[in-house]
Design goal:
The complex is a heterodimer.
Chain A: H1 10-17, H2 21-32, E1 37-39, H3 40-47, H4 51-57, H5 59-64, E2 67-72, E3 75-80, H6 82-105
Antiparallel strand pairs in A: 1-3, 2-3
Chain B: H1 14-19, E1 29-34, H2 40-54, E2 58-62, H3 67-76, H4 81-86, E3 90-94, H5 97-101, H6 110-118, E4 122-126, H7 138-155, E5 158-164, E6 186-195, E7 198-208, E8 218-223, E9 226-232, E10 236-237, E11 245-246, H8 248-255
Parallel strand pairs in B: 1-5, 1-6, 2-3, 2-4, 4-5
Antiparallel strand pairs in B: 6-7, 7-8, 8-9, 10-11
The chains are: A alpha+beta, B alpha/beta.
């Protein structure tokens, strides 16, 4: 008999779904520290990686809207969008329960 | 629990409010200068918690710690900062001094957005010492900080900011090398005092523009629940020198 349904955890799901460890690291870092406002260079330092690699890896986060880019005083800042994360989490939860229902119907 | 007089904002530490005539004046800026480990960041959490309780949302800016460390420290004292954020009662921002100063002469800064997002009335910045690491000459830095202070006044937030005092004990206390002490309305000093071979913490309101204030050094304690300001150092002198001693009268009385 299946146990009680458990709320899917975005962090855990992303760890399974994304294709690079740095992408996961970025999401987990902002999930744990949502108030971080940093430049790309500053974020690369905090994560111990190089700027070019990070720029490539966060393109998906930006297009998904989890990370926003904001220009100020000649700097490009990265800001985490908490509301967008909540949207993504709701979407994943919805998709997961849909797939679980489909699997048990089979 | 004590109530805060009308027109004042509680710091969240009743003993400190009492020293300042009931609390801070809205829109004022207060510098909390202290040696390492004297409770500057804890005071910031008290200030935020008091705002949540009074229906005054607050923003906590840190240059020093990652938000996850602040969440953990707040939780240990019984404050659920994450829940406050979820309810738009607070925001925790971790950034750099350069980003905070960016475009501060204009509207639409990073701080404007965060403050506007939750209608913040309180702001805590931890710590202003980090501005000294930007490499700016002290004159330029003073000008930029002065601009930031003006910007905060326009934002109508009541600001509490910290500054590190490098000296642990001793007669000389230097707060900053760019004169921030002249740009703020109020100054609270937290320092160590050596008394009979023991390091104790002391708190003093050095400057307060909001009228009369308690000028005594008071005993400061950090407990599991946070900061507690206690009685004055009765019968003790030379506290501001860092090496306090019992007064002659006190010593004589102890001999009898």
């Amino acid at each position: 008999m299946p146990g009680p349904s458990k709320k899917p955890d975005l962090k855990k799901l992303l760890e399974l779904w994304v294709d690079s460890s740095l992408k996961v690291q970025v999401v987990v870092f902002f999930h744990d520290n949502p108030g971080i406002i940093e430049t790309l260079e500053g974020l690369a330092k905090r994560l111990g990686t190089n700027v070019d690699h990070l720029r490539k890896e966060i393109a998906g986060h930006i297009s998904l809207g989890i990370l926003r880019q904001q220009k100020t005083d000649g700097m490009t800042l990265l800001v985490y969008d908490r509301r967008k994360e909540a949207d993504v989490q709701r979407f994943i939860e919805h998709e997961m329960s849909k797939r679980t229902a489909e699997a048990s119907a089979r | 629990m004590t109530s805060t007089p009308a027109g004042r904002l509680s710091t969240g530490v009743p003993g400190l409010d009492g020293m300042m005539g009931g609390g801070l004046l809205p829109g004022d800026s207060t510098l909390v200068a202290g040696s390492p480990g004297t409770g500057k960041t804890t005071l910031g959490l008290h200030y935020l918690a008091a705002g949540v309780q009074a229906g005054q949302p607050g923003v906590f800016v840190t240059f020093e710690y990652l938000p996850q460390q602040i969440y953990r420290d707040a939780e240990k004292k019984g404050w659920d900062l994450k829940q406050w954020e979820a309810e738009d009662k607070a925001r925790l921002v971790c950034t750099t001094p350069k980003i905070l100063l960016a475009d501060s002469a204009k509207k639409g800064t990073v701080l404007d957005q965060v403050v506007g997002d939750i209608g913040a009335q309180r702001l805590f910045i931890d710590s202003m010492s980090h501005f000294e690491f930007t490499g700016m000459p002290s004159g330029d830095l003073r000008e930029r900080i002065s601009g930031l202070m003006n910007h905060l006044r326009l934002l109508k937030v009541t600001t509490v900011m910290t500054h590190e005092i490098a000296q642990i004990v001793g007669p000389a206390v230097t707060i900053s090398n760019y004169g921030i002490e002249f740009l703020v309305d109020n100054i609270v000093v937290l320092r160590y005092v050596e008394l009979e071979g023991e390091l104790r913490k002391a708190l003093n309101v050095l400057k307060f523009r909001g009228g009369g204030h308690d000028k005594k050094y008071r005993v400061l304690e950090l407990t599991d629940e946070g900061m507690v300001v206690k009685s004055d150092f009765a019968g003790v002198e030379n506290i501001s020198l860092g090496s306090a001693r019992r007064t002659v009268k006190e010593r004589a009385q102890r001999l009898v």
